[in-house]
Amino acid sequence: MIISTPPFCPVRFQDPDLLDSAFHASTDMHALWAHLRDNRPVYRADPGRGREPFWVVTRHEDVSRVLRSHTEFSSRRGTILCVLDLNTPDIATDDMLADTDPPRHREFREPLNKAFSPAVIARQEGSIRKLARRTILTALEAGDVYDMAKPARMFPMAVSAEIMGLPPESWERLSELVMMTIAYDDPSYSVGSAQATVRQARHELFEHFRDEFARRSRDDTDPDVIGVLRAMDLTEGPLSERQAVLNGFVLLIGANVTMPHALGTLFTLMAQYPEKFQAVRENPDLRPTCLQEVLRWASPVTALMRYAVRDVELQGQTIRAGEPVTAWLGAANRDKRVFKDPYTFDVTRNPNRHVAFGVGPHYCIGAGLAKASLKIFLDELLDLVETVEIAGDIEHVASHFVSGYKRMPLRLTPRKAAVR
Q: Which residues contact 186 (CB under 8 A, 6 or more apart)?
């Protein structure tokens, strides 16, 4: 299939490419999404090679329906389109926040909301600001060209790890393990086959959380994530060690797939649109809408998966009960049916109904923390940095789950008025 949708260049596309991480890293996927939205908005992809067919949903309205309607599309069998056979039973069904439907989902989510409450985030503001400032000053002090890809990963890791109660000496390895989990095909993170890479990453992450939970007693009143999980009760009784480990794992992954790559997008946009960021610097009232637009533009999580609960009609297609359905967030966030001039970066865009954090019952539990951290980072960036220049080739993470960066050489010019 050849796709050519102005203003895009033609893109060659075959069904297996949707699972090809290298294809995602090297291709302007928006050309593909534009074609599918307009011509085949609910598309059945058959990647072959023994892999299960799955439905591809690209319009904002349909993506929202798939993610909102748990009575039609279930999360219980997994939510990530990954290397495993889509018919393989999920090991975490009904035991992990991500792999549950209401009302079971609420049993996990409501206690965990305490760990991500506005009050908890407010208490962390000073720490987050110091981390942001240190990250930016380190880049400025490095001089000429500085690769911001790793610092953009480590800032969110530090923020989320503090909320979760994870020791600082573990943060760098945890960041590597997260990347192995979500970018298992990328040569920078793989340790063999995709299956072997995911297996090793999960094993180490599970062991790490087992050790952390073992150090805490059930009466631990610490309000961090591990403390909340350690004290949590479900209908059947106290959370088991296995359930606690699974939920610690998924919360860490979730906290480190959106913010790092939104930060990478923030830097590249500031380089491309200096006049727009100057306007944001001069008018702080634009900062909230600017950040929402950065999130729409970045769409760091590429797709989320559900399974049809029953036969469902969508855009004239019949999705049969039990079939996997993928909702493509990046495609929904450029839908001209919802966003005026969707390919224009508009720091004043309002309303902005982006789905970068998902939508519905599984709306990202850490969205408040991510937004607060991104706002603080933007404040510090505008205070300390006059201009951003892309100073070399940018490399994207090879992943069909995240749209992110693994190399980002930048030249930052400090503001003369910045307070050091």
A: 21, 25, 179, 397, 398, 399, 406
Provide the residue ranges of all domains of the chain, joining segments of one domain with +: 2-414
pLDDT in tens, 71-90: 999 999 999 887 545 555 56
Name the strand (E) or helix (H) holding 389. Answer: strand 385-390
> How far apart are the C-alpha atoms of 24 and 34, rounded to whole Å?
15
The per-residue pLDDT for range 134-164, each reduced to its tens digit, is: 999 999 998 889 999 999 999 999 999 999 9
- Cβ neighbors of 378 (< 8 A, separation 6 or more) are 266, 280, 287, 290, 291
Tokens of 338: 């919802």
The pLDDT of residue 310? 98
The CATH number corresponding to 2-414 among 1.10.1740.10, 3.30.429.10, 1.10.630.10, 1.20.58.100 equals 1.10.630.10
Cα–Cα distance measured from residue 2 to residue 43, given in angstroms and rounded to the nearest whole number: 16
- Degrees to nearest 5, angle at CA 117 with 111 and 123: 130
